[in-house]
Amino acid sequence: MKNIFKFTLPLLLVAVMFSGCDDILEPSVDQAVPTEVAVSTIGDLQGLILGAHDLLNSAVLYGRDIHVGPDVMSDNAFSTGSSNRFVIQSQFDFTTQNAYSANTWNNFYRVIAVANIVINNQSGLSGDEYDNIVGQAYALRALAHMNLIKFFGQQWVTGGDPNLGVPYVTTYAEGNNYPARDPIATVWTNIGNDFQMAADLMDPQFDTNVGAIGYYAVKGLQSRYYLYTGDFDAAIAAADVVINSGNYTLVPAANLLSTWASGTGPNSLFELVFIDTDNPGFDNMARIIRRSNYGDVEATQDLYDAYDADDVRRDLLTVHTDGNQEIRMTGKYVDDLVGTDNIRVIRYAEVWLNKAEALARRNQGGDRAEAQSMINTLSAARGSSRVYADGEPLTVLAERRLELAFEGHRFFDLARHGLDIPNPPIRAGVGAGLRFNDNNGALEFGDYRFALPIPNAEMNANPNMVQNEGYLN
Amino acid sequence: MFKKLLSVAFIVMLAPLSVMAQTGVLTGTVTDQSTGELLTGASVQIVELQTGGFVGIDGVYRVTNIPVGSYTVRVSYVGYRTESSTVNIAAGENTYDVQMRLDATGLDEVVVTGVGNIERQAFTGAASTVRGDRFANVPVSSVDQALRGAAPGLTVNAATGTPGAVQQIRIRGISSVNAGVAPLFVIDGVPVVSGSNASSTATSSFGIMSSLNPNDIESITVLKDAAATAPYGARGSNGVIVITTKQGRQGRTEYNASYQRGVNSRAVDGEQPMDVNTRLEIFQQMFPNNGYTNFAAISQPWDGGDYNWVEETTNDGAVQQDFSLSARGGTQTTNFYISGGAFTQEGHTIGSSLERMSGKVDVTHRFDDVVRISNSMQGSFTEQDGYLEGGGFFGNPNLAGYFFPANINPRNEDGTPNIGTLGVPIFNPLYIQENDLNRKRTYRFLNNTRLELNLADNLLVTSRFSVDFVETVEKYYRNRAYGDAVNFNGSVNDINNRNINWVWQNIAQYLWNLDANNAFTFRLISETQKNTYEGFSATGRGIAADGLFNLNTTATPFAVGGETTDWGIQSFTGLVNYGFREKLYSDVSFRYEGNSRFASDERWGSFWSVGLAYVLTEEDFFRNLGFLDYARVRTSYGKTGNASIGLNLYQATVGFGAYAGQPSILNSNLGNQALTWETANSLDIALEFEMFERLTGSATVFRKDSENLLFSVPLSRTTGHTAQTQNVGELFNQGLELELNLNLVRSRDFSWNVGGNYTFVDNEVTKLPVDGDGNPITITTGTRYIAVEGYAVNTWYMRSWAGVDPDNGDPLWLKDIVDADGNVTGQETTNNYNEASLYDQGAAALPRVFGSFNTRLDFRGFYASATMYYAFGYKVYDDWAGFQRGDGRNFIWGQYARQADRWQQPGDIAENPLPVWGGNKNSSLGSSRFLYDGDHLRLQDLRIGYNVPANLLQGTGLSGLNVYFLGTNLWTYAFDESLNHDPAVPADGFTALLTPPLKSYTFGVSLNF
Fold it and tell me: What contacts A251, CB < 8 A, 6 or more positions away?
């Protein structure tokens, strides 16, 4: 018996030794799903749209960096460098290796990739709800490209090549892996087409949630878009769709502060939702803006002084009377603890101002009078006792600065008007911030720094990529 | 039918067992030739019969039942030259006493390949063996740390000096750009998991190897070339580290108890922080330099004191101690080894420590002549108390040491940590380290069961089943009063990672002698490995009361996460070793292996090797030279593989996230169905020799060509992805390894050895992925690394610092002068960072030349030994210098003391530019200003001890007593005078906010009874 054990065992062993079992080599994929499997139902497509919103939420996009960066790159704000953040933007010290440039570029293109998975889906689905979802994808693709061209296009750089827009990407995982930059004009045209496609596909009945891009948000973004392309009739028409919808109102002065503090409000067309489990940690908007252990971004004295004493919007700014007497935009970003402030991508007041600017710049018939009336209406609604005497484009711009401060517009608003970036006194109190140009000169319109550098990693990977003016390495 | 087959097999297997009528017994003593010490445990083998015995505690061996005749008797003992003689066995008792000589090079040792031990002479591969005494009783928390300088060809860089950290080992250079470059670890023949099993990269590195008790290790063999790594061919590209643990042996039970205790401090002081007076002086100067007149004298708190935060955050009296007990013995049928150990080590950074408790039981039982079963169990509990070390965290004490300026008082008047207004937005680590917890615990259970069937004299079948269970439990507690979690009233994050790795290995070994001259060994190996990982993480916020750090005592569940992954490997290997007399040997191997990391069509790869060795001194010509005792040449060539990439990369997948509390879907991986093995072709040629019975040595040249590199090819970001893993690119490593050992004096009372090893490695990328135009893609990581054709991996490539302009204090960099045709005609300086050109800085992150010198003196039981490690031809980069050397930018932070040497007026020749509030023209951005030569010498070990002679111990009950002092890293000399940090940095070449290597003074005692 013992011997049988002794010799059958080895034989069995030898027999199984060289027989494989193939399932050992078949890995399980428990956290991710093959792409073709994941895009087949309405729910999947909705999930992808939420995924694109999730990406926009990132601290390097609307979650913080691109939403406050254009204010730091202007006369509205500056960096104290307290945690070494936003110093690059405040000083216009961009290099091809800056994370700001790379993060903006990489993440907006990732939003575009997700939008393209939806747009090019092979699910065979149809119907109103499906159309609305695909429309959202077109709108997000347009919004992402619009941000990219504003940051990276050569449109505001003297001697900039008009061919140096950004690649307009409409496919995912197929097609050209090394696209060249599309001409600026082409990019703007494509953005316009995508917004229009979105507007055509979408239906206001699905605008149930201000936390996801909806029909009126698209019309509002169109009113913004046409200011950049100079098609003022279209800007006015798009703004009128929103204004005439009756869904939105200018918040009265008495409610303004509480509207900002309480999340979604009646003046909001589209905002990105932040809840505590998003866990941005310290990388939340309020923490960089309020007094905190980051707190790098301060408002300038110049911005504070621009408000009328009765203007409730000045009350959104807090003047700290101790220490360095810094001025901080505490009213628009309240929660620096866990970062649950929603980020307003587009508000009703902006649509209002977009129309006013379009009128002022079209300047036909009674346009400027109407523009003047619009900005006076807004100013009065904010409790200001200032009354504007004209409806000139720069007058509208002045009111726009007051309304949209710290919402990511100021640098682009100045650039769109062909203006220099002023470098006014930044702090009345002691201490100093970190500003560009060493002393007090302005950054002249057309300077190469009106466009960010194409990030180094993109330059290395893509032979067809051309660097922007002024950035050598 | 089956029964018939069985009985046939039965007969076939019995046939070689011939029965002899007359037998004899061989017995004798084995002693050290110079000291006369009895070598307990030495192995005596009757070569022709493949039987033998061990020397017992009485110093006597006994082999019975030897058929009368003439045999080759081989006596071997770890650390001694193997002695072989022909002995005639007559019927009855035969006596054969052997005197053995210490062997410094290990030329005659047995090579442990993990799948069978091979006499070194017959081994055609490149392997270095390091004996266990190098690991026993040394103050290292991770045993692989002690490999540095111990063998040629490998570099060992600690991820950090914090106890328990991962050791980054590179064997013969870097064989891949993006795939893993760490060697495969094998314990007692079975591949195991290595690296880290912890999730958190923010906190201190914690390696799985730190769970092993170094005192349990018999030897470590480093397998380097294709022939040596052939049994692991598919994962052999990065080399293999084979750890053999102690097993029982026949004889009286020997007990060992040892204890050591030491203190640790920094081996190199590092940069010094700037004192408060210099700080104030510069503060006053730099505002007017930026045109500001309206500034505060200092806007930070200052009570008039001058505080050194580096001293505050370090612990110069960090203690380590180790206590081990073991018992080892056995009968003819059952042998055992049992040990237990307790090790504790305090880190040099305040609040860090490691604690390990381990046990091992190894039992082998021989049922009869055929069946032998053994089981080895190792269990350990390892706990690391770490800190936020992985980057610029506010709570990182190493960051605080340099980032807190000298004007801020770390303590209140009553001595408690100052957590009031500190003026800089980081946390006082004195409080954080006291009140927060960054704890990692590893529970490891490694069980290895082996069944050996000696089916015939020449046929051995071994089956091993091993389970490596590694569970790492992490706890990150943030107190509610101060620091990272004060905003949500404290938090607790618990993470649990369970990794189960099982391996089933079957080996059939068949010996076949064609005739007296031609001997073959055949081995067939099949191996199946499956690794399963399960992890989860949960965070709660709102601590009920200070010091309650369980999730149950948090008010709000905050976040949860978890994942499971797995991978598998299956392989079939054939090995043939052929020996012609004791003169010529050859090895041939073939391995076919499948790996779950690749798509099913690309999963399987074929690997092979051939090796040849020729013992020159078997030829009369060489033997007759007289001075040459032994010489052998060997060479090997073969193909090995590497599959160390992330899981599931071949599949195109989407991942999942959440937006506004709803699940969302994101693109995650582009996929690549064509992904397959990265391979390396290695050539190895070596000469080994001994002459004048005093000088031994070896010289090896090697070249390893890696191809089809598993490259993370950068994509245009417009694809929505940053990279795709593809099989492209080629690189090579080539070099030279030398070992020499000279026995200067050898007498009964006194001996003196000197030796050394030397390695030169040349690494070069020869082919990179190409872009759409067919041009190679330049691969940079951050701003400093690059993979460029013609350069080593991780060559430093950045702007070249050209000093400070004596006229105006501007920073200067080099830039190329380019003519109209685009040709570079020369260089000039520029003060514009964006205009500066990027240059190859002439060195990479790993040394090109390294090795050690060692010496050992023995005098009547007293001994002294020393190892001097050296490394040349690499550079290190001070990654955080932009903050501490900001020239006015980042001046709210503490600065290095060296910043005092600054430009102040025209004509000044200064190290640093004019300080300007906000920074002076980007002077603090990355450039060779912060790059230093790493060349250094280091007195790695200095050991002085006394082995009390046996005659003095008579009557004490002790059989051995050893007391010693061991100094580690006592002296370091860096050749670059401007390098203040420790030149030994992690393998990536960056000095980061980590704990540098430690200097220790250790005293120990070891008792045998």
Answer: A259, A265, A266, A267, A349, A381
Reported as type and span, the H/E element at residue A413 is helix A410-416
The domain of A74 spans 41-277+308-461
Surface-to-core class of residue B552, CB atoms within 10 Å of its CB (0-12 exposed, 13-18 middle, 19+ buried): exposed
Over the range B30-52, which residues count as b (16 or more CB within 10 Å of their CB) and which as e? bbbbbbebbbbbbbbbbeebebb
Specify the pLDDT at position A5.
Answer: 54
Contacts B600 to A, Cβ<8 Å:
25-26
pLDDT attached to residue B18: 37
Total domains in the fold of chain A: 1
What is the CATH classification number for the domain harbouring A133? 1.25.40.390
Q: What is the mean pLDDT of residues A335-350?
A: 89
Q: Where are the domains of chain B?
A: 22-102, 143-269+314-820+835-882+931-1008
Looking at A96-127, list the stretches that DSSP marks H as alpha helix, in order from N- to C-terminal side: 99-119
Most B-contacting residue of A21, A24, A98, A275 (CB-CB within 10 A), to test interface: A24
**pLDDT tens column, A149-182:** 999 999 999 988 889 999 999 999 877 788 999 9
- If one compares B791 and A371, the residue with the highest pLDDT of the two is A371
Count of residues in chain A: 473
- Which of residues 247 through 266 in chain A touch B, CB cutoff 8 A? none
Q: Does domain B22-102 have CATH number 2.40.50.90?
A: no
Q: How far apart are CA A62 and CA A344, in angstroms?
A: 9
A·B CB contacts under 8 A:
285
Task: Kindly state whether residue A103 falls inside one of the protein's structural domains.
Answer: yes
Residue of B nearest to A176 (CA): B719
Tokens, residue B848: 């090109």
A92 found inside a domain: yes
Nearest to B713 by CA among A353, A457, A265, A419: A457
Q: What percent of chain B has pLDDT over 70?
A: 93
Is residue A439 a part of any domain in this protein? yes
Q: A362 lies in a domain?
A: yes
A276-318 per-position pLDDT tens digit: 777 666 788 998 999 887 888 999 999 999 999 999 999 999 9
The fourth-level CATH superfamily of domain B143-269+314-820+835-882+931-1008 is TonB-dependent receptor, beta-barrel domain (2.40.170.20)
Question: Which residue ranges of chain B lie beneath pLDDT 50?
Answer: 1-21, 104-108, 294-295, 297
Asked whether the predicted pLDDT for residue A3 surpasses 60, the reply is no
